[in-house]
Structure formats: C-alpha cells, structure tokens
Design brief:
Blueprint lengths: L10 H7 L7 H7 L13 H15 L63 H14 L7 H26 L27 H19 L14 H16 L9 H20 L14 H5 L10 E5 L15 H5 L14 H6 L25 H6 E2 L3 E2 L9 E2 L3 E2 L13 E2 L11 E2 L20 E5 H14 L3 H15 L16 H15 L6 H7 L7 H6 L11 E6 L33 E2 L10 E2 L2 H12 E6 L24 H6 L18
Helix pairs in contact: 3-4, 3-5, 4-5, 5-6, 5-7, 6-7, 7-8, 7-13, 8-13, 13-14, 13-15, 14-15
C-alpha cells in the first residue's frame, strides 16, 4: 500500500501542535492573537516540518478530488474548465449578466476576506500562516541545515499564493509579516492598500529567488517525494514571468518582458536537466506509449516538476486518494462517468502527422478517430475504443444510441443508448491519466496516481513561447517539435506538422495550440485563454487567427445506429448486442476474428481480420455521426459569453465594505489599473 504524500495535519493535531502556550485572560489580552503558535515549533525541526506540511495541505486538493480539472481559485471545482472548450455547462463566467457588478456572483471571491481569529482556509489566512513561520523561524536557534529547506518551501508557497491572486486580479496588498487578527478600535495597522501589479510581480520573484537559493543544495529522499525543489521553484519563476510578458499584462508587446521570461525559462530548463529532469520517454515515442505512461511513474519521474501527491490507502485517517479515475471512468466500467469532454476538444487534436483536421483531405469525419495524433487515443475513449481495467482487459467503451420510435420535430434525438447504467453528456469519455491496471472492485476508489501540476513539457513550451517572444523563431519551433516528437507525431513535412508556420504570430498560435493539446484537461487552458485574451474578438485573436469562444456552444456526439440499408434503426432492443449464440438484431459488435460478414450484413462474405478493421466497418456502414447540441443550456438562445472585465477581476462588495481602503479595479466601478 502506497502512503507517499505530504502529511496533512488535521484540525485536532493542528490545535495540539500549534496551541497557545497559555490560555489565561492576561496572556490573550497581551497577545491579542488567537492563532499564535508554541515557540517549540521554531525550535524542534520535526515540529517545524509538520507546520510546513500543514501549509502544503492548505493549498493542495483534498481526498478524492477530480484533480485534473480541480482549481482552488474556482472554489475547488471545475468551473474554470467549463469556461473553456474543454467542458460544457453554464457557470458564472460564461453566461449573460445584465451588468458587471461586485455584487454579482461573477465577482470572483478568491481574493479572500479580512484576517480574523477563525481557522478558515483562504488566501489571507494561508499567507498569515506562512508569515508566522517566516517571522519566527530565525529567532530560536534552529540550525541552518534544518531550517533553510523549510524556509525555502515557505517562500515558495508565499510566492505561489501571490501569483495565484495577481494573475486573476492584478495588484493586491503585499503583506510580508503576520497580521494580528484582533486590532484596537480605530487602528489602521491592518489597512494595507493594493500594490501595483509590477510591485507584486517583483515581490513574487524575490520570494522565488530566496526559495531557490535556500533549496539549491537540497535533495529530497523518496519519502519526501512531492516537496518543492530548487528546479521546481525555477520553473515556477519562468511561469510567472511568462504571464507577465503575455498580452494580458503586456499589451504593448514589450520585448524586454519576453527576454526576462526567456532567461528565466532557459535557466529553469538547464537546472532541471542537471537534476535529471526531462521529457518522459520510457517505452518509446511510437504510438504515444511514453506519453501515455508518464502519469504512473512517481518517485524519480523525469517529467514531474511540481507534484500533488496522492496515495491508495483505504484507511480513513490516511486517505489522500485521487478521484480522477473514478470520475472519468464510465458507469458501464464501474466508474461515475461524471466528466464529458467536448467535440471541440476532439477536433483540436491534429492528424498523426501533426497537421490540423481543418481542410485536410486525409481527415474523414465519419472515421474521426482514424490516424490522429497519438495523444488523441490516450486522451479520449470514443465509441468502440478498448479501455482496459484490471477486471476486464478487453473492455470496449460503447456509446452509440438509437431510436425506440420514429423521431419527431418535438423529439428529434435518439432516446435509447447502449449505456444501460447511464451515459455521460457528450457521447465520448476522457481517458487521460487513467490506469489500465486500475480496479473497479470498489468503483476505482483508492487511486494513488499523483498529479503533475507542472510537467517538464510545460517548461519546454514556456521556453518556446518566450523564445518566440524575442524573435528566436527557429528555437521556438524546435522546442515545440521536441514535444511533438515525444508524443509520437510522424514527420511528414520535416517539422512534425509545423512546416507552414513562418511568422512570429503563427509561431505564437502554434505554441498555444500545442499547449491546448499537450495539457488538455490539466487545468491550463483557462489561464492560457486569459493570458492571451482569446475569449472575445480583439487584437490577439486577429493576430493569431484564432476563433474566440464568445458566441459559441460546446457540443458532443450522438453515435446513431442505422440498418444495413442505411435507414434509421428503430426498435427497443440494442442493434449490435449479440445473444448467447452470437446473433445481434443487425450485426454483432464484438465477434471473434477473423470474422466473415453474414448474409444480413453490409458486403456479406467479407472477411474482417481484426477488431480495428471491424470498427472501421461498423462506423462506415452502421453509425451516423451527429453533433449533439444539448450540453450547454438549450433555452433563450444560450451562447458562451465572456466579459472583458473578467481579465482583471474586481473585489467583491462585502470585502470592499469591510475594507474600504482597498481600491476597486477598473471596469468594476473603481480606478485601480492592473496594467501598472
């Protein structure tokens, strides 16, 4: 049983370990701090390490989180993924509002609330816990060898928290010491105004530089897998500076911003490679084998730069299970079938040679799954795809539908499905980061698959984008190609599908598209769309030739059964499910091979040698591919709508009411300029 994960300290342990040294009224009156800590925490390395572990737990997902689309800033859910092409459904940031207001639910509350004496987990309580540690750790004689790695991790998490706010709001108050949650009436001690975005960026970089220096000689043991490393810090610095160079904060395309991002990302890549990191290639690139296997190698995985650890424990006090496997697996295979990828994401994946499907004569929309980028087959489970698990290594994921009665104008969609236990919404499933060795004995509970929040591939593509920013176009393209080579893309044009990419903006479009595919369903797309302001028509969509999301609908698939003569199959029974004798109403979907087409089938007498060829036969002759347009709301002519004010969120009204010294953001009724 795997128990590797950063230990999360529960509330009881927290109170016991970090309790006040005294509970008498005089002490409380003197300190006026109900969240102080025992000074032993700063004297005893084991206690200090537990404190750091507790801070990790404040940022990381809980037990059974569907981690690939989980986002703390969104409220610990997938609302941000639903504000992209990846997932459909109405959320606060893709629906119409009569006005933009800090009173509305679209005013993101992630900025937190005033520090109080409660133990709530929000941005400012997390920062306060970090600042308490950094304020006290140097005052009690702990040896540098013990405290410096702990300080390095805490500087990282402070930078991480500030970056998470700045990328959403622009400048925020910079608080570098622990604020007292209880202040005298009339005191302005805790009234810290918003700093400029540029000041916040410099503070983030300062903390990251400190963290990297303090961690530079630290090599974590296997038992500490998942702790922040100097290489991880350097890579995160590259991410921060790439955001700072991107159009959301760099509308004038200042090349010095791109150069700074380039230098940071090159340094990160170089450092990580010296530490044994690189693209995961075990098993080889052919057919995407390495790409598909990288999720399941943990300690010493070269791809893993920043990791969220999970375990496979079933014990209540030890569980930190990854809920992704259970969430994405279909009900037919014993999972929840709770996540529904969209046709728009399916269409985004190129052909096997890296070329887009758009206008491509080699692409057949009936056989939409044929000859695609190898990552396609590791990301999606389409109708008829083999999707193994421990108890059934031959399991086929069928999603086709049919009519029990003739369709009408009022009821045009098929009303029967082969998924008798319940289907997902889109007619295609997510299989990314699912383990063929997973067991459905308990519905895929207790998955211990770790999540790579930052992969080496991101470092490569961050460097590629930065290189393009400074007009090192050949370098940028070569870096994109390296990611495609590892994915198993074939080289049909000498550049893995990128031969026609020539201008700077075409290179930018290419790297963003590569990120869309490589990091699909890894909680990156929302932030890429924001960085480049690609939600609505504007300068960057025009420059890059990218269609905006505004005005669109996310859709799925009806894979509709038809008879041998091409007409709709209308009956109560499953047309392709065979009885014990191997006979189905139309044709058997899963015969023994080689298989001779019977007299009732299309092209009778034809010998089909294997399952892959038979799937092509079924799709060609017995399935109509119909776009399913009921994933998004179907009333009031609903279309995706993003408002430009969301690029820099405002401060919600109740926080403004309690903290009137905070300046509201432009576009939300205030004057704070997030571009300064």
């Amino acid at each position: 049983m795997k128990i590797k994960y950063i230990k999360a300290i529960g509330l009881f342990t927290l109170l016991a370990t970090f309790s006040l040294t005294s509970c008498n009224d005089d002490f409380l009156e003197e300190k006026k701090d109900y969240a102080g800590v025992n000074e032993d925490v700063f004297k005893v390395p084991a206690l200090a390490s537990q404190y750091v572990d507790y801070v990790y737990s404040l940022f990381l997902p809980g037990n059974n989180a569907a981690i690939n689309t989980w986002d703390l800033a969104a409220g610990g859910n997938d609302d941000f993924s639903q504000t992209t092409e990846e997932l459909a459904g109405e959320v606060n940031w893709n629906k119409p509002w009569t006005s933009i207001s800090p009173l509305n639910a679209h005013c993101l509350p992630y900025i937190g609330s005033r520090v109080s004496s409660s133990i709530a987990n929000n941005t400012w309580t997390r920062l306060r816990q970090i600042n308490i540690f950094l304020d006290g750790i140097d005052k009690n004689g702990m040896a540098d060898a013990d405290k410096n790695p702990l300080k390095g991790q805490m500087y990282f998490w402070r930078a991480y928290q500030y970056y998470e706010m700045v990328k959403l709001y622009g400048g925020v108050p910079i608080v570098l010491t622990a604020q007292n949650p209880i202040i005298d009436e009339g005191s302005t001690e805790a009234e810290v105004p918003r700093s400029s975005t540029s000041e916040c960026i410099e503070q983030i970089i300062s903390d990251l530089d400190k963290a990297q220096d303090l961690l530079k000689d630290v090599t974590w043991s296997s038992a500490n897998w998942g702790r922040i490393t100097s290489g991880g810090v350097a890579a995160f610095k590259g991410r921060v500076l790439l955001t700072w160079a991107s159009p959301i904060f760099n509308p004038t395309d200042d090349v010095q911003r791109w150069k700074r991002a380039y230098d940071a990302n090159l340094a990160a890549k170089t450092l990580l490679e010296s530490q044994g990191k690189g693209l995961f290639v075990a098993g080889g690139a052919a057919n995407g084998v390495a790409w598909g296997n990288m999720w399941f190698t943990e300690v010493n995985n070269p791809e893993a730069v920043i990791v969220y650890g999970f375990n496979n424990s079933a014990a209540a006090n030890l569980q930190k299970n990854n809920g992704w496997e259970r969430a994405v697996r279909s009900k037919a295979s014993g999972g929840n079938g709770a996540i529904s990828p969209t046709k728009q994401m399916v269409d985004a994946f190129p052909m096997a040679d890296g070329k887009s499907i758009v206008g491509n004569a080699a692409y057949n929309p009936v056989l939409f799954y044929k000859n695609r980028d190898p990552r396609f087959y590791k990301t999606f489970a389409y109708n008829g795809a083999t999707w193994k698990f421990t108890e059934n290594t031959a399991f086929k994921q069928w999603t086709y539908t049919w009519y029990s009665k003739a369709p009408t104008v009022a009821a045009p969609n098929p009303d029967k499905t082969t998924e008798s236990l319940g289907a997902n919404s889109s007619g295609i499933y997510l299989r990314k980061a699912t383990n063929e060795g997973a067991s459905n004995a308990t519905g895929y509970l207790n998955s211990g698959t770790d999540y790579m929040e930052m992969r080496f591939a991101e470092v490569v593509l961050n460097l590629a984008e930065s290189a393009i920013g400074i007009n090192n176009l050949a370098e940028g393209k070569s870096l994109i190609e390296s990611v495609r080579i590892r994915a198993g893309i074939t080289n049909g044009d000498g550049h893995y599908g990128l031969a026609d990419v020539t201008s700077r903006d075409q290179h930018f479009a290419a790297v963003l598209n590569e990120r869309k595919i490589e990091f699909a369903y890894e909680n990156k797309r929302f932030y890429d769309l924001r960085r480049w302001k690609l939600f609505e028509d504007g300068p960057t969509t025009a420059r890059l030739g990218v269609a905006p999301l505004n005005g669109t609908r996310r859709t799925g698939y009806f894979i509709v059964a038809k008879k041998t003569d091409g007409t709709k199959y209308i009956a109560a029974t499953d047309p392709f499910l065979a009885n014990a004798a191997g006979v189905a109403p139309i044709v058997n979907r899963d015969p023994v091979f080689p298989y001779t087409i019977p007299a009732t089938g299309k092209n009778p007498g034809t010998v089909i040698p294997n399952y892959d060829a038979y799937i092509d036969y079924l799709y060609t002759n017995y399935f109509d591919i119909v776009e399913k347009d009921n994933l998004d709301p179907t009333t009031n002519n609903w279309k995706f709508i993003w408002y430009s004010q969301y690029y820099y969120f405002g401060i919600y009204q109740s926080l403004l009411d309690s903290s009137p010294y905070l300046e509201q953001t432009q576009g939300w009724g205030g004057s704070f300029d997030p571009l300064k």
